[in-house]
């Protein structure tokens, strides 16, 4: 089963609620804009805890590693940020969007 298929089975917002009830520090990443061949639609979520555990998907596996690393910093600082990945961006080849497209992800701390 692919990462995107697994993300469709489990609701990351429900997972986030359970993790918050456990007292975990969390961040949520939300797809706010896509263009071209971005594999996840706007409104898709990735929930990340301070240890780097995650549920959901913002790109079907293309940029999750980079988003998780940024999320840990957002959890620590409490400051939200907008992330952008795409073929015009110098990180495109590193994170795997070489097929084209663009994705903007808003990242914020929960709780």
TrEMBL record:
It holds the Pfam family XdhC_CoxI. This is XdhC family protein. It comes from Pseudohoeflea suaedae. InterPro entries: MoCofactor_Util/Proc, XdhC_CoxI. It comes from the Bacteria. Residues 19-86 form the XdhC- CoxI domain.
């Amino acid at each position: 089963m692919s990462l995107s298929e697994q993300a469709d089975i489990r609701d990351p917002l429900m997972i986030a609620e359970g993790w918050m009830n456990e007292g975990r520090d969390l961040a949520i990443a939300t797809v706010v804009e896509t263009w071209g061949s971005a594999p996840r639609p706007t409104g898709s979520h990735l929930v990340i805890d301070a240890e780097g555990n995650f549920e959901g998907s913002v790109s079907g596996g293309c940029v999750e590693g980079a988003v998780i690393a940024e999320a840990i910093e957002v959890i620590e600082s409490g400051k939200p940020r907008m992330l952008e990945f795409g073929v015009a961006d110098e990180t495109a080849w590193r994170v795997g969007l070489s097929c084209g497209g663009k994705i903007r992800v808003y990242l914020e701390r929960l709780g």
